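Usage

Read records sequentially. Each one opens with the input sequence:
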Amino acid sequence: MLLKYFYDDRLAQAAYMVGCSATGVAMVIDPARDITPYLEAAAAEGLEICYVAETHIHADFVSGSRELAARTGATLYLSDTGDANWKYQFAGANTVLLNDGDAWMVGSVRVEVIATPGHTPEHIMLQITDTATTDKPLGLFTGDCLFVGAVGRPDLLEKATAVEGTMIAGAREQYQNIARLRQMPDWLQVWPGHGAGSACGKALGALPSTTLGYEKHTNHAFALDTEDTFVEWLLEDQPEPPAYFAQMKKVNKKGPALLVELPIPEPLTRDQLAELLDAEAQIVDTRDAEAFADHHLAGTISIPSRSSGFCTYAGWLVDYARPVYLIAPQDQISRILHDLRAVGVDDVRGFYPAEQLDGATAILARREAAEVAAHRDQFHIIDVRNKAEVDERYIPGSQHIFMGYLAREVANIPREKPLVLYCATGIRSHIGASVLAGLGFENVANLDGGIDAWQAAGYPVTEGTPAAEPF
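and closes with the structure output:
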């Protein structure tokens, strides 16, 4: 048996390939939209991808299952568990629908379905056995049910897609999943769908894999004896679900467009860019934060494409219902499109080469910690980090508005004083400041270096949640 691991750092997302060298066939589990790594790996191993499986309808990235099946002719293996609202709508003649206990062979590798609703109603795990070696199972592809040091959050349907009444029910189902996992052998390998940094759970570990026995000893989920205690623990302190999760659920349920079907963005002329600005089109400047701060076009927002959170930030801030236009270096367009398409930002109509951005006169102010501290009463300070970060420390007197909520909370932002936004190191607050500037706030600045620089300079921080939260 052959096992390969594929990891996308920007999405903290894992996919896997299981192959049988004796028969020359392979299966890919939870592929991302860019299928090139799987095709290259299969070719290098002399394998044909004949099976593509998913553990659930993903919310944080565009699935590559349909793309991979279309390219290779592979059969799709998709969950048929859960209620009618969570069935794959693109399941066709090349699809096998799965329920608890179903099994199939990938060469000499047996794959068995374990229904694990909780994170989502249709969620399944896949247990594999290398029958050429033993009749004992080897491991579990746990998807978003069980992670290293964590379990999948059950509140996404309710918080991200407004499906009421699913959060507590899902948490109780996760408790039952943990109870079921307790009864399974300690030796089982665990291959999760995400790593550290994913918003699909809280405090995910960074290791690529684990064992069930290790999780039983170290994962707090296994230490909670009562269902009510487990539910309370699981639902508290979950990170804010990115706004684009609802869009991803719809896309992956319906079936993503194939990449060949997407529009190819055309270079924009200076006159076309001016017309778009006059029409208040959605224009994203993907240059580095420093370049945008020094000079940019008023009315554009900054999402630096080289930041590690680019995909997530774009998902938070882009309006999926409107066309997108980019300002970007020409030699980076392909990479930027790749990253945007990973989170379903498909309607990119055109781009303006950043090399030709002369004449841009708008600036985004940066303020040093010393200046803000010395004239504290002259500024209104906004913390744009997530709540878990704020609970650890914040600048006294600051208002908390999470970066992804700034646009919807403009009515709660005072205009009497100059605004200073901060995050941990300055990237998210830079993006947030550009959003507010685009919404008409004329005196908004980014705290250079964020709260890290503030604290390193010896200025005070307070533990706990700011009382000035607007929601």
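Summary fields computed downstream for this record:
- The radius of gyration is 24 Å.
- The chain has a mean pLDDT of 94.
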